[in-house]
């Protein structure tokens, strides 16, 4: 059963009749191979239907319950909703999801047949309950090319549990996975077993749509610009060793490309997706498009702006062409209907651990070929697609094949502490577990993380040489926050400001924040913040700190003026309806109206409240 793409047009929702997806032709083969092999790797182009249909194939063969992981929260919710809608199921019953502190599964006394989770949630559950957390017949790890620390640790832990749970089936899925690497990783599975690889060929229905990739050489010809020294002007050098910063010329090139595409493509329903690495870069490109507001309808995809809301507002206009400016959040798992053109800056923002400053840092890097292919896959689904890569062909050849694993560039303090706090002894030794991941980190990096945790009294070394968590370490690990935010929250607790400390720590971790953030209008955003916190000028305070305190004040304002005021009405409604699980919608309309008047986001309050409750 293919999932249709929901297109919003003139205020009405219409369901397109989608062509069969490529994965459907291999349904029987996929089921057969998964039943016969403990580990199966499915490789298929983006848009082939594997994320939504493979779990349903297995479900139809009574292989439930099925656990599916996705690297991003948005994808977890979106795919679970899509499956629920396609099968006319109630979300949270037969199919559900679990992200962070929102668990929409196993509702109404029904065990969900398919559950989608982030790798972080699965890792926490395995550390708490060990193999008991894997009471599934099939585990599907999707988008395995996205190598977060949590994903690598989940894979290593599941591999270890596979040795004890012979009836468990593991399915790995990706468009650009390193097949050789995964086959080698599972070579010691035992009993002569091997990883079964299934390659999904292009569907005859989708192969009629062509994807054409153009590099700077072709772009220079199209725009009739000087083709000399292209790499030095737009890439700062001849290969991927060059600085990945974006200069003025790159923004201007993208702008010229947008105008060229619009002038030469008569069908304005064909949208343009532009990949840029940072919020600042999105803003710079957006500013250049402001004078063309009657020509382009610009949408922004960034973690500071609610992605769900942003996608819902992407209406197809009959008078304007849609331009989506996005960071790598749009690389995978997000389907944007009607994208015919992709402009790829070939850059990304990467977070890494600075061992000198002993802090996280961020910098621009060139993406891998694998990431470029993911971005390419955003088009060519319902029409011919063109991809403009803002590097030369030679420069592109010098890019890494795959993304550098996060486990090799990040501080391991949070993960090491989590592993040390794990209940099952089999996965509670960080040195042992981390050496069993796909790309083991340097032992010195593990030792540095252990020593750092000992210094802050989160761990202590026993006489036998084993590291055990202290009460403080267990407390740090129990908080649903990042490591640094957990440390900050406990410092506030020492000062007697528990509630405020937890709220501030949450706000340092999440996006979007309560105060409405209108993209591109910095002065207006600052005005909204000043309405809640401006300071008295006697104490110097940084912009980030002022923003955080402003949002803290906004949350407390909401608690006292709206939430507390309506609590009695809410409790009366619950008592009257006898249906507390449905009564959460009772205040939706009044809250939306109240928040709109005060320039606030109700979804942010819900998110913060859930995290705060789980911290109690």
Topology, element by element:
Layout: E1 6-9, E2 12-15, H1 27-36, E3 39-44, H2 50-60, E4 66-70, H3 73-86, E5 95-99, E6 102-104, E7 114-118, H4 119-129, E8 138-141, H5 149-162, E9 169-174, H6 179-185, E10 196-200, E11 211-214, H7 216-223, H8 230-234, H9 248-264, E12 271-275, H10 279-289, E13 296-301, H11 307-312, E14 321-326, E15 339-344, E16 347-354, E17 359-366, H12 369-376, E18 385-389, H13 393-397, H14 413-420, H15 430-434, H16 443-455, E19 459-461, E20 467-469, H17 471-478, H18 483-494, H19 498-509, H20 522-530, H21 543-577, H22 588-597, H23 602-615
Parallel strand pairs: 3-9, 3-10, 4-7, 4-8, 5-7, 8-9, 11-18, 12-14, 12-15, 13-14, 15-18
Antiparallel strand pairs: 1-2, 5-6, 16-17, 19-20
Helix pairs in contact: 2-3, 4-5, 9-10, 18-19, 19-21, 19-23
Compact summary:
By secondary structure, the chain is an alpha/beta fold. The chain has 23 helices and 20 strands.
């Amino acid at each position: 059963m293919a999932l249709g793409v929901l297109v919003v047009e003139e205020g009405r929702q219409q369901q397109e009749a989608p062509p069969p997806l490529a994965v459907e032709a291999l349904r029987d083969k996929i089921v057969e191979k998964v039943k016969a092999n403990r580990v199966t790797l499915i490789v298929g182009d983006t848009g082939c239907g594997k994320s939504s249909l493979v779990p349903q194939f297995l479900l139809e063969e009574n292989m439930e319950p099925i656990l599916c992981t996705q690297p991003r929260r948005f994808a977890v919710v979106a795919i679970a909703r899509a499956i629920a809608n396609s099968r006319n199921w109630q979300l949270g019953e037969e199919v559900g999801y679990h992200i962070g502190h929102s668990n929409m599964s196993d509702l109404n006394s029904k065990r969900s047949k398919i559950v989608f989770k982030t790798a972080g949630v699965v890792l926490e559950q395995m550390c708490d309950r060990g193999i008991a957390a894997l009471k599934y017949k099939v585990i599907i790890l999707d988008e395995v090319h996205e190598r977060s620390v949590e994903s690598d640790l989940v894979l290593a832990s599941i591999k270890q549990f596979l040795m004890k749970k012979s009836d468990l089936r593991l399915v790995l899925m990706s468009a650009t996975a390193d097949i050789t690497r995964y086959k080698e990783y599972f070579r010691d599975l035992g009993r002569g077993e091997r990883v079964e690889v299934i390659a999904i060929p292009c569907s005859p229905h989708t192969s009629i749509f062509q994807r054409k990739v153009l590099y700077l050489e072709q772009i220079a010809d199209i725009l009739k610009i000087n083709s000399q020294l292209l790499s030095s002007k737009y890439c700062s050098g001849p290969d991927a060793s060059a600085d990945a910063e974006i200069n003025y010329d790159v923004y201007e090139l993208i702008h010229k490309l947008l105008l060229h595409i619009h002038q030469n493509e008569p069908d304005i329903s064909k949208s343009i997706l532009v990949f840029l690495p940072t919020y600042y870069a999105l803003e710079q490109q957006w500013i250049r498009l402001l004078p063309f507001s009657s020509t382009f309808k610009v949408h922004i995809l960034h973690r500071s702006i609610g992605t769900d809301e942003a996608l819902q507002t992407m209406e197809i206009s009959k008078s304007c062409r849609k331009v989506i400016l996005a960071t790598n959040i749009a690389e995978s798992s997000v389907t944007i209907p009607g994208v015919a053109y992709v402009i790829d800056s070939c850059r990304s923002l990467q977070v890494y651990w600075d061992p000198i400053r002993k802090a996280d840092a961020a910098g621009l890097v060139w993406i891998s070929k694998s990431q470029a292919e993911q971005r390419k896959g955003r088009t060519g689904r319902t029409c011919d697609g063109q991809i403009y890569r803002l590097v030369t062909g030679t420069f592109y050849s010098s890019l890494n094949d795959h993304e550098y694993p996060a486990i090799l560039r990040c501080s391991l303090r949070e993960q090491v502490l989590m592993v040390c706090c794990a209940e099952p002894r089999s996965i509670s030794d960080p040195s042992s577990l981390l050496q069993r991941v796909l790309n083991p980190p340097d032992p010195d990096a593990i030792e540095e993380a252990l020593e750092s945790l000992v210094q802050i009294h989160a761990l202590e070394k026993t006489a036998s040489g084993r590291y055990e968590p202290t009460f403080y370490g267990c407390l740090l690990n129990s908080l649903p926050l990042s490591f640094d935010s957990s440390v900050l929250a406990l410092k506030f607790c020492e000062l007697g400001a528990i509630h405020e400390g937890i709220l501030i720590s949450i706000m340092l971790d999440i996006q979007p924040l309560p105060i409405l953030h209108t993209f591109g209008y910095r002065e207006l955003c600052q005005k909204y913040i000043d309405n809640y916190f401006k300071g008295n000028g006697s104490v110097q305070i940084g912009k980030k700190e002022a923003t955080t305190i402003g949002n803290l004040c906004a949350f407390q304002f909401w608690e006292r003026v709206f939430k507390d005021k309506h609590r009695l009405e809410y409790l009366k409604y619950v008592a009257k309806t006898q249906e507390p699980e449905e009564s959460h919608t009772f205040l939706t309309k009044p809250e939306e109206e109240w928040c709109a008047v005060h320039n606030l986001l109700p979804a942010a309050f819900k998110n913060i409240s859930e995290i705060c409750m789980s911290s109690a």
